[in-house]
UniProtKB/TrEMBL annotation:
The UniProt record lists the keyword rRNA-binding: no
Pfam family, one: p450
The organism's place on the tree of life at top rank: Eukaryota
Protein's name according to its UniProt entry: Cytochrome P450
Family: Belongs to the cytochrome P450 family.
InterPro entries noted in UniProt: Cyt_P450, Cyt_P450_sf
GO molecular function: heme binding; iron ion binding; monooxygenase activity; oxidoreductase activity, acting on paired donors, with incorporation or reduction of molecular oxygen
Amino acid sequence: MTVMGFSHHEERRSILQAYRRALVHEDSFLFHSKKPLPPSPPKLPIIGNLHQLGPSPHRSLRDLSQKQGPLMLMNFGSVPILVASSSEAAKEIMKTHDLNARVMSFRQVREKEMSLMIEKIEKGRDSLVDLTKLSFWFANNIVSKVALGRTYNELKFTVLLERFVHVFGLICIGNYIPWLSWIDRLSGLEDKAQKVVKDFDEFLESVLEEHVHKRRGMNGQNDEEKDIS
C-alpha cells in the first residue's frame, strides 16, 4: 500500500532518518576537500580519538574544543567526524549545506513549543522544575510535530524515545572499527539496538496507519458531500 507516492517502508525509513538527524548530526563536507582541514587532537592507530571521549563525551568534546578551537576534526576509528562547538561554526555549516532554510521552515513550531515550555515553567514557579525532563519534552514535541505531524506524549512513546536516544547515544565500536564488531554483540548492544529499532518501526507503522485511516475518512466524507450535492 502506498500513500502519496511513497510506500510504508519508504515513509518509515524517512521518518526514522529524520529522528536520527534530529538527535545526531555527523557532517563530512570538508573531508574530500583540498582545503586545509580543521585542527585535530593527536590520535592513536586504529582507534583514532575514541580514547579521548571518556564517560561523558559532551564534556570531553568541550574540553578538547577549548584547546583545538570551535571547529575540529576527530577520528572515531576509521570514521572522520567534524565537531562544531560554537554557534558561529554551526551556522556556517548550515549555510554551506543549505540547512538553514530547512531549519527556519520549522520556526513556527519551535516558537510555539518554546512558548508552551515557558508557560509550563511559569506555572511551576513555586515548585522544583526537572529541567532534564522538560528539555526532553520540548525536543520530543518539536521532532514529533515536524516528522510525524503531531505531538506524541503518551508514556509508551516517551519511554520508547528515551530508549532510542540512550541506545543510539552509546558508542558502537563496530561502526568505527568493523573488525571489532564482535564486542557489540558480546556486550548486548547490537541486540538492544535491533530491539529498539524493531519497536520504533512498529510505532511508526501505527502512525502511518493512523494517517491512512484519517485520509480515508476525509476522502469518504468528501465523497458523501459529492453524493448529496
